[in-house]
Design goal:
alpha+beta, five-stranded mixed sheet
Amino acid sequence: MLKINLIAVFLFALVSFGCAASEKAVQISDSNAASAAPATEPGVYGKTSQTQKISLEQTANAQNVPAVTERKVIRNANLTLETNAPEEAGRKIAAIAESKGGFVVNSEAKTSGADDSTRTSVTVTVRVPASQFDTTVAEIRQTAERVSQEKVSGQDVTEEFIDLEARIRTQKALEAQFLEIMKGARSVADALEVQKQLAEVRGEIEKVEGRRKFLENQTSFSTITVTLNTPTVFAAASTGFGAQLWRALGDGVDAALFVVLGLIRVFLAMLPLLILFGIPIWLIVRHFRKKWRLARLAQQIEQEEKS
């Protein structure tokens, strides 16, 4: 009888979870459950049909709870700004976020180039309440001299949020029914079976609630990522013949220096190998050449004595 009761609860859970069952569907499922389980069995399960009817009605009522009507939108922004003082602008952005009730998620600074061409880049990621998103973005723009790039995106997750709310209500109603069934279990095997199903339902509830909390966090606070760069210096281009000739001469000198420096680098890189292998090879060759000369000299002396 416990197994019949479990089957009835699971059948309805599938119907109510997929399409938010109407009252007519509830009545059909209720009648099927009543026909599948005898209503006259004595003992703990003597009122099975009535218990199943209450279970179905409670789960249906959980599905009919008014859903959330407020729109749930995840809003993010990415800005690239140019300013002569990126570090100072980064501190201003952090202060703006904190004044709006937000906080700094990440801040990073790096420098590239050398001498006059050195460029500083600062990346700041902040999170602010969604209600302060537009105001914060507007104030961040004012911290720099120029906005070189701006991207604002929004993702509507209202439908997913409503679906999660419905799934949580359904799973909690199912959990309550399993607890009622466990109270009436008359054997250890039945109790263990119900406990197993109850653990699965609770695991699903935790999973869905975790996703819902994540969406609530993402919709309650918006993320703004700002990249601050020093302005790029563009030199005025000269188009005269003399300027072009001088530029070509400069390019030729640069190319020659590049080749010479490349050869020097190759020589310096090969120098340890030359010392390690070149000196022993030179000593061996020198030894054999000396030995060959002595042999040749002895041969000449021998020929002269014969003659």
